[in-house]
Amino acid sequence: MAGLASDGSNPDVRLLYDVNGLAKSAPGWVDRAMEFIGEYGILLAVVLLVLGCWWSARRRPDTESAVTAVAGMVWAPLAAGIAVLVNVPIRGFVGRARPFVEHQGLDVLVKGKTDFSFVSDHATLTMAVGAGLFVAHRKFGLAAIGLALAEGFCRVFMGVHYPTDVVGGFALGTAVTLLLSPLAMALLTPLVRAVARSERGRVLVRSRRVRRVAAAAAVDIPEARSESGRNDLAA
After folding, report:
1. CATH architecture of residue range(s) 2-204
2. Tens digits of per-residue pLDDT, 39-66?
3. Which pLDDT tens digit goes with each residue over 149-171?
4. DSSP state of 114
């Protein structure tokens, strides 16, 4: 894989220089902002999206749909962790050096990166979460996928990854999430359903307000039927 990146005529290398060249021509504050966003900011935003998805899932009108949505939300970060672990032997096997090791003139915004380059952990993690959230909640999933794409751009902009490192991370994160999703949901859904039935844990699956509304509706329906029956008898 390293050989693919050694030739300056390679499209991977050309795109690396084109995107990283934006960092060279940008003001210093833009580089500092991109460094923070690409290293920490987008990861923090992804965490907030997971929490937002959980908050929304708890407000589903019925228990079963809430259980399914919360189980999908739980699977998203678990899938990301598994995908990053899967990447450990891949990195060691491929052994691709960071782009700034083999190519001169790059504007490297994050120093001290000594590990291998293929595939990008950041791209893998963010896309795994995006794919997982998309299964649980389309709106939050699309937002997370958008953040993953932005993360991939940042990693190349910062000069710490080739574009193919990012594409490989997207593919790995998506594959791990979707391939293991049926098994994960089969295991997580009964667990989340049991939490929803417990006295202390049910608030993690359904909000108190939604449960109160559902309980009130369940009481109103029999009363309405009883009133209708009395009216029929009176008629």
Report:
1. Up-down Bundle (1.20)
2. 999 999 999 999 999 998 888 878 888 8
3. 999 999 999 999 999 999 999 99
4. -
Closest alpha carbon to 5 in 171, 166, 175, 113: 166
Cα–Cα nearest to 53, from 84, 24, 76, 37: 76
For the entire predicted model, the pTM comes to 0.83
Q: How far is CA 49 from the centre of its chain?
A: 8
Distance CA 101, CA 124 (A): 22
- The number of residues in the chain equals 235
- Widest pairwise Cα distance in the chain: 93
Q: Are 38 and 158 in contact (CB under 8 A)?
A: yes
User: How far apart are the C-alpha atoms of 70 and 207, rounded to whole Å?
Assistant: 12
172: number of Cβ within 10 Å: 23
Q: Where are the domains of the chain?
A: 2-204
Structure tokens at 92: 């060691």
Looking at residue 131, its amino acid is A
Q: How many CB atoms lie within 10 A of CB 167?
A: 15
